[in-house]
Each structure stands twice: as C-alpha cells, then as structure tokens.
Amino acid sequence: MAVDIGSARQRQRQVVQLTWVSALVNVFLTAIKAIVGFMTQSDALIADAAHSAADVAGSIAVMIGLRVAKRPADDDHPYGHGKAEVIAASLVAMLLILAGLDVVYTSARQLFAPKETPEMAALLTAVGSVLVKEVLFRYQMKVGRAAHSPALIAGAEDHRSDVYSSLAASVGILIALVGRWTHMPVLLFADPLAGIFVALVVVRVGYRMAGESFGTLLDQVLDGETTRQIAGCVADVPGVLRVDNVRVRTNGSYWIVDVRMSVDPEMSVLEGHQIARMVKWSIKGQYDQVRDVLVHVNPYDLVEPD
Domains of the chain, with CATH numbers? Predict the structure, then answer.
C-alpha cells in the first residue's frame, strides 16, 4: 500500500482514518476471539481476546489523543498540544501491562483445573488474527513513521504484540489438539501455558512503550546524531561564529529546538536578530517535524559560555 505524505493535512487525515480502522478491527477481533474462546474452552484464545479488549480501549485513547493534539497553540499551551499523543501512548502501554498481568493470573489458575480440549475453530480464529494484525501492523507503522505520530506508532507496536500473542495462542492450541488426537493428556497443558506466554509478551511490550512515552513526557532530548546534524545546519548559516548548544525535544509528533549560538559582539541587535531568523528558517526548512525553534544569541569570545 502506498502512503501519501504530500502534505501535513493529508497525513493527519490518513492518521485519523487509520485509527478508526484499527479501532473497528480490534472490536471485531475481540468479539470473535471471546466468543470462539469460550465456546471451545481455549485459555490461550481467551487470553488473546483479553489482549484485544485492551487494544479497543487503547484505540479509543489514541483517537482522543490525536484529536487533542490537533488543537493549535494557545496562551496556556504555547508549545501546542502535541504531548496529548504521548499521553495516549502511555495509556495504551498501561492498559497492555494490566491486561497482561490479569491474563497471567487467569492462565496460571487453569494449570490446576480440569482441562477441556480446545476445538479446531479456536486454532483457525487465532491464525486468522495473526494474518489480519500483521497486515495492520505493517501499514500503520509505515503511516505512523511518515507522520511522526507516537500514538500511531504505539498502536502499530500493539498490533505487532497481537501478532506474537495470537501466534503463541495458535501454537498452544495446536499442541493441545495434538494431545487429544494422540491421547496424550499432558499436551493439553500447552493451551494455558501459551496463555501465560502471550501475557508475558504483552507485559514486555507495554513496559517498553511506557518507558519511551514517559521519556518524552519528561522532555528527554533526541539522540546525539540528530542533534549534531541540526548543529551543523546552524553552523552553516552565515554570521554564526560558534554553535554553543543545541537541544531537541519531542512534543508529540513534532520537535522543539533550542539553539544557543555566538555572533560578532560588534554587530547591531538588528543584525543578530536577522541571523537568528535565518537559523530558524534553515532548521525548519530542512526538518519538517520541527514546529518551533528558540534561538539565544551570545556575543562571541574566546571562552565558550556555560
């Protein structure tokens, strides 16, 4: 599928449409997995359904976050509302962790209960979920990266965790079916064990997503390579004698850049201001994801400022 990234408006429309598609797919898969899981007595598929139910709540959080993030900057939020997306991604992560821990508990209890053999319908449902979620993951990740949307990327990572969980559920159900066909009751425990594995995968994905989201909320700066590239962009502007410091922080789907630079101390305030404007235009011209550039002008001397 081709991804149109021609304009910010088109990207935003595509992000919203894809979020709705993800929500509807999650609702459908949750219902199918839950119905088939309870009808066929498959612990692994029920665990997978719980994961998908958390996805539904996560999709709602992402839609709300994207809606808030679109609001323009105002007096109370001069840097915009971009972190609403990051908050949404954090909620998705927390929901994944809670859903995973609940499934671990439920599946562990089933290890000590009389076992019912799952049916073939449970296996077919789990395999179908793998295929649907893999397609959705690839497309949503592609759009999320093009739009620099942390909420959409978090949702895509959630789809990939679904792929792993449904795949583990498929293996567990298949082994349990083999146990019934070969009259080996011990293999029936593969179903709840697969449920536990699914849950641990979900918890791990949620923990990683939470760490990334919390880092953004705490104004964690971008990696050194990106900062060095932007510093080089500043140094190329005529009139900049030294780049004293550059910091780049994410604010949802866009960046805020802080620049401290030195110019000739003998030049006028107007000339220094014009150089600062050129720095701002240069950075924003080369990096579409930069929303604002804050430039502090220092007088150049032989000792670098703190």
Answer: 8-217 (1.20.1510.10), 224-299 (3.30.70.1350)
